[in-house]
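Hi,

I'm pasting everything inline rather than attaching a file, because the server keeps stripping attachments. The sequence lines come first, and each chain or strand is labelled.
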Amino acid sequence: MISFRDFSFWYPDAHEPTVRSATLDIDEGEFALLVGRTGSGKSTVLRAVNGLVPHFTGGHVEGEVTTAGRNPRTSPPREFADAVGVVGQDPLAGFVTDTVEEELAYGMEQLAMAPQVMRRRVEEVLDLMGIAPLRNRALRTLSGGEQQRVALGSVLTTSPRLLVLDEPTSALDPAAAEEALAAILRLVHDLGVTVLAAEHRLERVVEYADALVVVSDATVRKGRPQEMLRHGALAPPVVQLGRLAGWHPLPLSVRDARRVAGPLRDRLSGVQALNAHSAGALPSVTRPSSARLSGLLLPPTSRATDGRADGLVVSSLTVRYGDTVALRSVDMVAEPGEVLAVMGRNGSGKSTLLWAVQGAGRRSAGSVRVAGSDTAGLTRTAAARLVALVPQQAGDLLYHDSVDAECAAADRAAAAATGATRDILERLFEGPALSGTTHPRDLSDGQRLGLALAVQLVSQPRVLLLDEPTRGLDYGAKSHLCSVLTDLAAAGCVVVVATHDVEFVAQSADQVLVLADGQVVSWAPTSEALAGSPIFAPQVAKVLAPQPWLTVDQVAHALSGDGVPHA
Amino acid sequence: MAALAPALIESRSGPDQRLPRALHPLAWWLWALGMAVAASRTTNPLLLGAILGVVSWVVVARRSDNPWAKAFRLYVIAGAVIIALRVFFRLVFGGGDGGHVLVPLPEVALPGAVAGIHLLGDVTAEALLGGLYDGLRLATMLICLGAANALANPRRLLRSMPPALHEVSTAVVVAMSVFPQLAESVVRVTRARRLRPSIPGESRLAAVLAVVIPVLEDSLDRSVLLAASMDSRGYGRRAGRSSRASRAAGLLLVCGLAGICVGANGVLDATTPRVLAAPMLAAGVCVGVAGLALSGRAVSRSAYRPDRWRVAELVTAGAGIAAAVLLFVSSGVDASDLNPSLTPLSWPQLPLLPLAGILIGLVPVVAAPQAASLEGASR
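And the predicted assembly:
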């Protein structure tokens, strides 16, 4: 179906190839998963399949690609429209029309299909994707999962034999990701469509894949998932647990792991789990503890005598827009040194909460106290220095044309010494990771997040709020972010993270606040909040239930022998 | 024969027309333009009032619950503003002509360099009415166009453009999709801007750039993504068509345009040889149309659920055109009925023939089908 023969590709003006002599075959009917760290060349491989690379990017190509018997190098992407369906990461960005039905018909109109055929196909695809009730809806009003299903449907109407999907579930919350994934699996199993998909969130899809294509250091290797996952940093928690316990064959799903996990559960039954936070800080050999960020923040003020927290105290915070109540009397307390995770489905008020706490968002009633004083009367600049928020699209914070200019502006805004932001940046990345002349737009998601974080940290905030920071991050970047956050907390900062990412919460958070419909549903320590929940339980908890283990680190620590609690 | 069958079934089915459906957007535009042309023929406030009544009635009776249908109010407001401005300027600058003084006001003496311009002065009935009539005519024409916008789906209108203009209409469609996203990212970036402490001594320009640059970068990224998506889905496919045909079409279009230019010049300039005038113009138009047709054939695409011209469409468009024609015809009968005289001041008459013409514009209330409601569109 797809074959790469000695394929190499250089972007314009690049000295090193993004992909180096890749040789790869994807067979008819195969579901192949493309994995690799951010910036490893996954997207380049995907886009080479139908000729978007090099027709849309320019650059230099060597070697051959054959897709459905045609050569994407000589024919442009539009000539592949009948054979290859391409769905990008953000479905909304790829929509051409504005209602569901017209979007489904668009591809067929371009192929000049007969009107009767179009009518029939549209109806069939509406049913296949389960989107018939949405047929007249405006695309912008759909939820993320619905949009992804419409995007899949819109390329299916031309009945392609191959689907190329770029991160089909990364940008979605768990429920929407389930929807989109179910739709993809149905195509794979019922229609025998060949699928090549890139994905970061391996824990969601790896069990269904026939083959794993690993892209690293510009080279491409393909193999069965069990074999490919034996080594390497890119592995979902269940696989890491399998490696730790030495299970063979390596389980890819919670179900497989649970069936072989009996002995492990017995071994662990005598040991008590530590809380996530202290366990996260345990492997001190790999990390120079919190030393790298200490001194970066103001020391926490002396604790009030009445025993009340001097961190962040939010009481009966209410936000309403006209008749809509976005937040209903939310109470929350986070002490310095704590990481608090805010979870809940899309639209449950997570972002509204963070913005209201920061002060840039609307606050209708209630109080927000940081270090003992209310933030209501503060000017924009004072509030931004006291409470830093990194928004969902971290790039929105950046508006200069180079990393250096961005750092210099942040120094001036915070009235800090010249080079302070650069210093933080290097400590965050443990070395000079970013070239100063790079344009912030050209950074990877992880690098951009790091830069935004450094820009916000230079004014030494007491409270750091992050909205969905794990979007687009691979496992390595995610665990790095996790250690940065726990270090910041250890340095005396209150850290609040709004996220969907259960595994990330299990690794980093001390407390979990669950919102639904603008109200607090539960507020509990991480182990309590996650372990028993069918939706929020991380993979390790599902495998080892009823024991309260959440992360592979905890288990590793317990097994290493010195995990006996000090108490 | 098989292709004819649906057409036969549709033309036969009387009750089918009564089912709610969207009327062909061009039919609404023809009707509304007809009404606007009718309005342009008269300054009689009674007739203009009748046109406004007719247009509003049709809009209220036949508009859908789509977002663009709500824009009609904005046009009415804009119309009111036009009338107010018109009257205001007439009162400020239009004094000094004499007439029936309503409110005596002193005139501001202007220096000799701008002699001939009166500033303020007595408020006369003539000036007031002149401004009112003029403004009302302009406002009515604008509201007629607003009615077309409210009744016709703008995207479907673009879809019924001739295939040769396919590229242009696609560009407009893309612009229409990107625009709301642009507005969204402006809101998002402005909000994010508040999260960073302001730089002491930062210029206003830098603050504006801080919003504009991320928004433009964002929309550029989106446009590239959209272009890639359109290309992957087959936009602009040739599918076996030769590039020779498209080159021939291009050549015809250029020759046609050149012919039209030379011809138009010849028609307007009496010194050019007559061969280069009307005959050249006609030849240019013919060649241009042939080029359009040929390049239209080179686009290999089909339309999903195309809008068809049926009886309701013909009746609706016809009603608008009839109203315009009747107002043209009746202006020859008695011009003072259409344009009531201001000197001497006279009470506007209500002439019957033009009124009948305008009332024809009401036909769509009965003839056009109810607009199909879209669930979720109003969400």
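Confidence is low (pLDDT under 50) at residues 275-290, 300-309, 563-567 of chain A.

If the labels don't parse on your end, tell me and I'll reformat.
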